[in-house]
């Protein structure tokens, strides 16, 4: 029987592991096959405090993991397949293997949404990207498309203009969802053009992106646009499939929390992007992991 099982091995989960390990709770971290989370897909991280010269995303995750391991975190490199939070001791399954635990910290993160159109998956990493902040520098003096109309799309489109020649923002409506200030900044940026009421229906290219086929959603007319980069900022989906029916989720799948980390089940806590769709930063996820660890520790003390 475990004191605390942490599900997820990225910023939030590994910070929760570090704190619960230092509290002598001997945490078990089921880190998933694809541990490290979204930072594993980034190149240089320049906004994680303590690294004035920046650090590569995977290297940062490696340091997080080593630090959690140093204080006795036990790791299982596999995906959790089922949970049961209705029993007194919570049950967590990895295939047929059952772990029983007094408390749980969920830190399974979120994944960027994609359009699921031909060429998108095939050219991912070869011109298709869900992270402009990570990949913008590869598109110096090139033309790129950014799909989305929210704050992320505006922020990333503006970031892209530091490198790209031209950024075409493709949005499915004729009004942006982004906040007024972000809209104003984007409208005032001479490198950004808007293509309204449209979506992409195909990404073109053999080994690299050479263009996209856009469709006007009002006229249904299709047209080809030459570009070398195809970026998506159409929201994220939290990794909460296995928690459905076990804890309360919002309609969009994010975990409902009160007092920062408490879920609807006493003893089950949630940290990081799985419960935060607003900040979504490595440092806020880590902070949230720390909070969940302290809350879990207090909960265990109270038992
Ligand atoms: P978001 O606000 O949900 O916006 C997603 C955008 O993608 C929307 O414009 C949406 O179109 C579009 N979209 C969704 N699915 C689509 C599809 N299948 N095809 C085409 N377009 C699609 O997500 P976000 O921009 O990632 O922002 C998430 C949260 O973080 C927000 O609360 C935001 O304010 C915050 N944020 C803040 C900042 C900042 O303040 N600096 C920066 C980034 C994010 P519709 O508009 O038609 O729905």
Task: Please describe the structure with a list of short key phrases separated by commas or semicolons.
alpha/beta; 19 strands; 303 residues; binds NADP nicotinamide-adenine-dinucleotide phosphate; seven-stranded mixed beta sheet; five-stranded parallel beta sheet
- Give the overall shape, derived from the CA principal axes: elongated
Find the count of extended strands (DSSP E, 2+ residues): 19
Radius of gyration: 21 Å
The CATH topology of the largest domain corresponds to FAD/NAD(P)-binding domain
Bound molecules: NADP nicotinamide-adenine-dinucleotide phosphate
CATH architecture of the largest domain: 3-Layer(bba) Sandwich
The CATH first-level class of the largest domain comes to Alpha Beta
Unreliable spans: none
- Enumerate how many helices there are, as a single number: 6
**Count of spatially separate domains:** 2
User: Which range does the strand content fall in?
Assistant: 25-35%
Outline the biggest β-sheet.
7 strands, mixed
Structural class: alpha/beta
Compute the average pLDDT. 96
């Amino acid at each position: 029987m475990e004191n605390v099982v942490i599900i997820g091995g990225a910023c939030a989960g590994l910070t929760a592991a570090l704190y619960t390990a230092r509290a002598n709770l001997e945490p078990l971290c089921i880190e998933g096959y694809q541990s490290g989370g979204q930072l594993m897909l980034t190149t240089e991280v320049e906004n994680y405090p303590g690294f004035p010269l920046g650090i590569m995303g995977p290297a940062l995750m490696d340091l997080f993991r080593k630090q959690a391991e140093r204080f006795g975190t036990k790791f299982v490199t596999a995906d959790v397949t089922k949970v049961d939070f209705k029993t007194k001791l919570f049950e967590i399954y990895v295939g047929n293997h059952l772990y029983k635990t007094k408390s749980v910290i969920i830190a399974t993160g979120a994944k960027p949404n994609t359009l699921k159109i031909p060429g998108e998956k095939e050219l991912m990493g070869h011109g298709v990207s869900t992270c402009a902040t990570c990949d913008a520098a590869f598109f110096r003096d090139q033309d790129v498309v950014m799909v989305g109309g929210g704050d992320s799309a505006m922020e990333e489109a503006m970031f892209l203009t530091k490198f790209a020649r031209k950024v075409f923002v493709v949005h499915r409506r004729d009004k942006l969802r982004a906040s007024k200030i972000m809209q104003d900044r984007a409208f005032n940026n001479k490198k950004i053009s808007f293509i309204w009421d449209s979506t992409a229906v195909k990404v073109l290219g053999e080994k690299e992106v050479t263009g996209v086929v856009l469709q006007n959603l009002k006229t249904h007319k299709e047209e080809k646009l030459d570009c070398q980069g195809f970026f998506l900022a159409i929201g994220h989906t939290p990794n909460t499939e296995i928690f459905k029916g076990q804890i309360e989720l919002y309609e969009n799948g994010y975990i409902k929390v009160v007092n920062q980390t408490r879920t609807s089940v006493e003893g089950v806590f949630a940290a990081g992007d799985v419960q935060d769709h607003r900040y979504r930063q490595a440092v806020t996820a880590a902070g949230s992991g720390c909070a969940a660890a302290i809350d879990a520790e207090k909960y265990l003390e109270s038992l």
